[in-house]
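Subject: sequence -> structure tokens, single chain

Hey, anyone have a minute? Need the predicted structure for the following. Not urgent.
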Amino acid sequence: MAYDALPWLERSLESVRGYETIVVDNGSTDGTPAFVRERFPEARLIEQGNVGMGGGNNAGMRVASGRYFLLLNSDAWALGDGVERLAEFADAHPDAAIVGPRLRNPDGTLQRSVRGFPTLWRLATEYLFLRKLAPRTRALNAFYAGGFAHDEEREVEWLYGPCLLVRRDAVDAVGLFDEDFFMFSEETDWCYRFRAAGWKVYFFPGAEVTHVGGASHGGRLFRENLRGHLRFFAKHHGLRTAERARRLLIWSLRLRGLLFRGARGREYRDSASWLASAPVPALMERDR
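Reply:
Had a minute. Here:
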């Protein structure tokens, strides 16, 4: 799925050249479609408006063939034989709905990708900076799998998703991404649904992928991240829990707004005001 990430797209597509390739462009304004037609004429190009991360990936999966889907962000690229190794691992684990590789930052350092499902406590450890007190413990950092060095195969709750190998049979059984999640929490919801249906999600460090991170949105979608939290809680734990999450986030962001200066502090204060402006059902409706 591509959206204004042209500086990295060529490397991304080269890393999977030789496989069936579908490029879904979510309304890029940087010349992505023309570039794909010129440099990768063998790729199938789907052009559409920006329907979000889940909607973009869904468009590609609907027309793809094969036993697996490799969902690869346009600012990520597979290293070496990473794609083959992911498929081999999935073949050896028929209960795997999703297999994710070890992620690397462009400088080669580890990019943490294993996550824990949101709970009110885990939300508090993140937004009140409690995880900073003991980042290597599950008690205060389960949200980011504290203490896990990303150095061994492991069944996990969910995976941050710039590159995911997904089994078609599992998708046929559980369904595609929920497109009500525009961006953020869509893979959280998907993994939650897979696990609830009896499938497993695996982290596999034997395959590696480089990911730039935040390339398309430049970190500008903080409100969408908050909206994703509320939608996840409302969908899987009910509106009462989602309202508790909203209040927790309001006070957490007000505190952050006091602690941080400049643009960052203003973003926190503005986000707290937005969360306080309406109940959860109204906040889950995106500005169109």
